[in-house]
Amino acid sequence: EAQVTQNPRYLITVTGKKLTVTCSQNMNHEYMSWYRQDPGLGLRQIYYSMNVEVTDKGDVPEGYKVSRKEKRNFPLILESPSPNQTSLYFCASSLSASGQPLLEAFFGQGTRLTVV
Amino acid sequence: QKEVEQDPGPLSVPEGAIVSLNCTYSNSAFQYFMWYRQYSRKGPELLMYTYSSGNKEDGRFTAQVDKSSKYISLFIRDSQPSDSATYLCAMSNQAGTALIFGKGTTLSVSS
Lengths: 116, 111
Prior knowledge:
By secondary structure, chain A is mainly β.
């Protein structure tokens, strides 16, 4: 089954404790991205990757890091989480190639993160 | 001004009603317009997309784009309780690196 898998689904952590949210896709997609979804603000892009070792900032990258060492995986790293990073996070992947419009993105189930 | 504006609702309708969901946008360079549906505790999934102006129909769903007014719509005919979800309009940025989303409209269809 084609899917984007995120782990964990739920996470409660304390301020400053480094954490990683994993994302894996089995569709051989080149494009992957992370979004956060907040009430009243909608979905906002954090980082994206057009291919292995190619990553770039989205609209809200502060406090986050990513890496793309393999095509299927795109982990999101919070080195020193703060309460304002409490949010619902989604990983997405797409067949979209560089320079082509981004149409169908496949989203994971989401990771609900609470930072206390 | 936000690039994409969408009334968050909530919108409550009886089963069988025709539903109209709308978005406005400010960037005239947008050419690809999408509607995603998000069920509670799930990720968004693509319903349909249209290119430039015009209509596109898929079963009970019709997407409409009016580029002159920078206005897009999604119509749902014969709405069903299973249509209860949040509907997100989205546009691809020109570089193809991001989807720009509206905030989503929450729809509830009662039987």
